[in-house]
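Reagents: none. Just compute today. Response regulator.
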Amino acid sequence: MKIQTICIIDDDPIFVYGTKVLLNYNCSFGSTIMVHEDGKEALDSLVAMVNSGEELPDILFLDLNMPVMDGWQFLDEFTKLSLDKYPMIYIVSSSIDSNDLEKASEYSMVKDFIAKPLSDKVLVDLFAEIEAEDASNSSAK
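Predicted 3D structure written out:
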């Protein structure tokens, strides 16, 4: 499975820039990177995509600490959407609070909690894991 679209929901321009650079050099990634600076902006955009019949991003990289609507508020609202298929959500945070890790595990759509900063190795491993999971799901059919 080639990841075509990734949505970065984070208000830190340095993190966003670094993540874009890493993604652009990764062969498992397609071409589209969406960026939103807060959860409300992202939620509005994703709801508009659903309403217009557009395909949602394959992956969301979600920060927890943002203005307007934080990552937890975003997740609470996003889970209310009735979708056939949800994107894979990876919380990417500088928080190392065990309560955040535990809370993240309560959301079935959250695949993992990744500590900032993202590195090339983390992305390579993440994409390899997705490809392996996709391959095993395809062979099970």
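The first strand starts at residue 3 and ends at 9.
Action item: order primers for follow-up constructs.
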